[in-house]
Amino acid sequence: MKSYKRIFAGLLAILSLGSCNDDAFLKEEPKTIYTTKTAFEKSSQVESQLVTAYRKIFSIHGYAIESLAPSPALLGGVGSDVTDIFHSLAGQGAGGWSNYAAWTTSDGKFSTVWDDFYKLISFSNLVLMGAENVEWTDETEKTYDIAQARFFRGYSYLRLAECFGGVPIVDQFTESLKLDYTRASREDVYKFAIEDLKAAAEGLPAYPKQDGKVAQGAAYHFLAEAYLGLGVETNNSSGDNYSKAADAAKKTIALHPLMTNRFGKRADPDSKSSNNGIPAYKPDGNVFYDLFQVGNYAYSAGNTESVWIIDIPGYDELQASGLSEGMYSGYMHSGQIYYLTQFVGPVFRDMRWKQELREEGANDCPFLGDIDIDKYPGGNLSAYLGGSSIGRVTPTTYLSDKVWEGDYWNDMRNDSINICRNFICLDRSHSRHGTIVKAEELNDPKGLLPLSAKIAMQDDWGWHSSAMDVHVAQYGRDWYVVRSSETYLLLAEALYRDGKSEDAATAINTVRSRANASKMLSGSEISIYTILDERARELSYEERRWPTLLRMGSSLNGGSNEVMKKQLLQNAMYTSDFPFYTGTIEWTLFPIPVKYIQMNSEAELEQNPGWK
Whole-model pTM above 0.85? Predict the structure, then answer.
């Protein structure tokens, strides 16, 4: 069993820190009352506190990013230019996240992001305090634990600076109630994140000690992103932020070269293994497809591109560990198992033929009725149809179509095995059985959306046998936090911003060449928009899209971010695909949650411009 899952099972509750004024009672130091003095007595307790930090990261990244849990959904781009709530569930736009008229300073999605990162900072500060309060038999372990804590703290401040601008910097754990926080400048928050990430890179190992743990590649990746943010915020006033970003990105790339050839569980033509009756070998697969197959995500599995993953337990591991947190739709689940299949993608069972195509004796839905269950286990909930999606979140036209138009169509990432756009009628009672169903043949043509192989496994090889009826939980299917292909795109941005467009084109073309794309870019074609488009092609559903867009502008002089505004107004679902919101965007950052402004009664936390 993977070691971190054993750690989860044995997690100690050491967070209940408190204080008491009874001197006599304090002298007894009862072990059931934890204070900053008694919480850490041995180094293993520091490691246990690090587990709470990893669990918080898992809740930010590892849940279904589109389950509409606020942090993973918002950070993952719901309401941006790449995804939003399906139009029939969003009241044709009123309930969509890109109906920006509905955004307020009391919106829970903003306060949850704020909460999550400050909790991660608190956990990190507690580790740093504990590491200095206990004796260590192995100084290298102390260095390693401190490096992980500084990584999490630096990562948190990077995200806070990107999303909210200047925020209070809390660099020590405190037990006392504090009501006089003040905002540091966005520049200073970026600089604080940079110092933490630099220290983390020095103390972390070159490669993950265990699947799911951070290592140097992740630290250098986010260090590059922090330098980019600082450069944009200050108009690169120091003159070297972009070159430092490029240097950091190159360090990650050196540690984690791209995968350029087929690899892993489904790439061996001599393999005789199978699962659920499906051969492991996938002859029409490619290297991009291989990146998203069960068992292929981790660096330890030979995937050099893998920088940092969320390590998801398999069914048997989950059952044996005792980590199951209950049942979901009748199936065992854990908070660390993402339900992308459940929340993302088309809902085939809700589709209906147009009236003139309906036939007596056949189902009104091309994907219901008389289905060959032996060929499509689960019927309308089969792997072929992406499983039991409720379709809460769907891609925008920008993500599903625009970025692939024209010269960009011929690309491995756009192959049908990676983005399936054509689906056949499964109803054997209909004369169209076995033929491709066209969008214009359905009552709601916009409901027939592409299905990404990152989200759903379209054959039953990767599924556990317990999921065959409904295809809900993807046990054992890990999730990327960082692949080095994203680092290449950070490198391209740094080079472009530093006036080196030809070198930026080379960096982007490295990613495009791996994808066997027919079009390569010249230096004259590089802009921040071509970089954003390439991020959408390569990193759909993986990228933290809102932080990317928000760091494209500066908060100085009232704030400006024309890049983000253009992307949102031209490409978001309810400004473009279904033009419900027709107003302007006056803000350039998320709002400071109003409840924290009100609670901070002894000092002023200023609200960001553009928010009332």
Answer: yes
